[in-house]
Amino acid sequence: MQAEYRARVSMKNPIHFLALGFGSGLVPVMPGTFGSLAAIPLLLACINVSVVSFIALTIIFSVVGIYLCGKTADDMQVHDHGSIVWDEIAGMFVTFLFVPISMSTLLVGFLLFRVFDILKPWPIGAIDKRLHGGTGIMLDDILAGAMACGCLHLLMVLWPDSLTFLS
Question: What is the average pLDDT across 46-58?
Answer without folding.
Answer: 97
